[in-house]
Amino acid sequence: MRRVLAILAAGNATRAGVDKVLADLGGQPVLAWSLASGLAAGCFDDIIVVAQNTNLARIANLVRERAPSARVIAGGATRTASSWAALDAASDADIIAIHDAARPFVPPSLFTRCVEVASADGSAIAGLPLADTVRRADEAGAATEELSRDGLWSAQTPQVFRRELLARAREAAGERSYSDDAAALVEAGIQPKMVLGERRNLKLTTLEDLAYARELVAKGLVGFPVLQVR
Q1: What are the structural domain ranges in the chain?
Q2: What is the CATH number of domain 3-126+155-218?
Q3: Which end of the chain has fewer CB atoms surrounding its CB within 10 Å, N or C?
């Protein structure tokens, strides 16, 4: 069974105001963290990094220094288009894992767990059950109702699939775009399986998120993944 990891690093970083994947985080580019975690997991036969055309060369140099056998390809105009580019590049995969480079603190064990579940059940979506109270508000910010959080999850990445399921979702999607790959499966009538994720697997969306991540690293609360000798 051939297992491929695709790291999506083609976002335009409009909310962060900087190129997140190349920003410094504890002396390493943000992208290097999830790349190192994927290598340390030891469960992938190939790694593909999906980058913007505008920084393809810089990303390729970064990846080549850390994972010479990994491939770097150009992504699309949307996150969904970049996922489909990864799907095309992983034509020989049985299992494909999609991970956002903007989640640098993904632990290797989460990659391994999701691959194991997807291999058995077809899919594995890392996420966390909602713990906070959820309220709907109107455009003025006035709370209008409280929603039950029973059964609600906050989705993360990695999201891991048998390749044929993701290909089926792509065919059903047409030109539509989605916030994540699990949504494409649901739209195609496929029910992906949720897998308990990690609270430290936070997403860097704003400059405040990046500053918080740097603080965690500086305090020694998160460490750079290290490839273990087996």
Answers
A1: 3-126+155-218
A2: 3.90.550.10
A3: C
Q: Report the distance separating Cα 55 and Cα 183, nearest Å.
A: 28
Q: Is residue 103 scored above 80 in pLDDT?
A: yes
Instruction: Tally the residues of the chain.
Output: 230
Rounded-to-integer distance, Cα 188 and Cα 173, Å: 7
| Mean pLDDT to the nearest integer, 24-39 | 97
Place of tokens 């997403």: 203
Asked whether the predicted pLDDT for residue 100 surpasses 90, the reply is yes
Nearest-angstrom CA–CA distance, 39 and 84: 22
Residue 39, C-beta contacts closer than 8 angstroms, at least 6 positions apart: 47, 66, 67, 225, 227
> What are 3's strand-pairing partners?
95
- The answer to whether the beta carbons of residues 213 and 204 sit under 8 Å apart is yes
Task: Give tens-digit pLDDT for 70-85.
Answer: 999 999 999 999 999 9
